[in-house]
Design a protein that fits this description.
Number of strands: 14
CATH architecture of the largest domain: 2-Layer Sandwich
CATH topology of the largest domain: Dihydrodipicolinate Reductase, domain 2
Number of domains: 2
Strand order of the largest sheet: 13-12-11-10-6-9-8-7-14
Radius of gyration: 20 Å
Largest sheet: 9 strands, mixed
Order of helices and strands: EHEHEHEHEHEHHHEEEEEEEHHE
Number of helices: 10
CATH class of the largest domain: Alpha Beta
Length: about 350
């Protein structure tokens, strides 16, 4: 099959795993454009010297060989860029979150449906082998009915991170720790066990950071089947720990720490373990993680276009996670400054 023509918009730090993945997948994907506001300063990684970056977004849109576009720019730019891509018949793989507000996020999903274009969202943690195995176990009722579950994201970001223009603001990012950092773990947790309701929540701005939005949130939840749940997410946990999801079932318990999964059964049958290598981006080095998950996500997105099916992280899925984040903040009320 002829390689799919693709473009990448945004060549910042978040583009690194995309560039590595696209290079790995060059037999199936023809990266024709790399769009950035500063072409001369762009680091093209494995494509350095092989693909010249450009600032001409409109020229890319009018290239009939480009079938799909990866948008890896700040969240506040997503609606307008996605709308332009859809108007030119381009499928879109959008960096998380969908946009800075639920209304703008909903509009992107609507535009994708109206244009009959595919919309995928970069929620690559869904493609960790440990996550995929746990999803299969839960779907097969191997743990029985879920009795309780929790998600914890004890991450760290130094003040220098929030000193960058727009970081941690509503205008650029759409929020703080929930929508910018913890969204990956929250999305996985919601996909695994469901969240029916936020029972109670508290959002705060710790003394660790000077920023506009929240850097610590905790909540009590009602899971999809009515069982109790809880969550905690922060970027004030120095030096940064590994995110953790625990699922207690009537037949055993599963612990997903980063990408490492361990499942122990009450009846004594052999434990299940899926080991993972590499970091998770929970500390000051935000890109400290392998690009394998991005590669799997992009592969799934391309297959969804070719086979005319929704991608595993399609816009509707991402919208549900965005809705949950809005529900958490609504239940918390005003962000408390400590």
């Amino acid at each position: 099959m002829k390689p799919m023509g693709m473009a990448l918009v945004g060549i910042g730090p978040g583009a690194v795993p995309h560039l590595l993945s696209l290079h790995d997948l060059r037999h199936a994907i023809d990266l024709r454009w790399a769009i950035t506001r500063r072409p001369d300063a762009a680091n093209m990684g494995p494509f350095q010297g092989h693909l010249k970056p450009s600032a001409d977004f409109q020229a890319m849109l009018h290239d009939p060989a480009v079938l799909a576009v990866i948008i890896a720019t700040p969240a506040a730019t997503h609606l307008e860029m996605a709308q332009a891509c859809f108007a030119h018949g381009k499928h879109v793989l959008l960096e998380k979150p969908l946009d800075v507000s639920l209304a703008r996020a909903q509009r992107i999903v609507e535009l994708a449906e109206q244009s009959h274009c595919h919309l995928g969202v970069v929620l690559q943690h869904r493609f960790r082998p440990g996550v995929e195995r746990l999803q299969l176990l839960l779907d097969a009722q191997a743990l029985g009915a879920v009795q309780a579950a929790s998600v914890s994201v004890p991450w760290w970001r130094p003040q220098s991170y929030y000193n960058q223009a727009g970081r941690g603001t509503m205008a650029r990012d759409g929020g703080g720790v929930l929508i910018t950092q913890a969204i990956h773990s929250l999305d996985v947790f919601r996909a695994l066990v469901g969240v029916r309701r936020v029972v109670a929540a508290q959002a705060s701005r710790t003394r660790v950071h000077q920023m506009e939005t929240e850097d610590h949130v905790q909540a009590l939840l009602e899971l999809g089947n009515g069982a109790p749940g809880r969550m905690m997410a922060t970027t004030a946990h120095y030096p940064g720990g590994t995110e953790r999801i625990e699922v207690i079932g009537e037949l055993g318990t599963a612990v997903l720490q980063g990408g490492h999964l361990r499942v122990d059964f009450i009846d004594g049958q052999a434990s299940i373990e899926v080991k993972a290598e590499g970091g998770t981006g929970g500390g000051a080095n935000i890109m400290d993680f392998p690009h394998d998950w991005h590669r799997s996500l992009i592969t799934d997105f391309v297959a969804s276009i070719q086979n005319q099916r929704p991608s595993r992280t399609h816009g509707g899925e991402a919208l549900q996670t965005h809705q949950w984040i809005d529900d958490l903040l609504a239940a918390a009320g005003q962000v408390v400054t400590l």
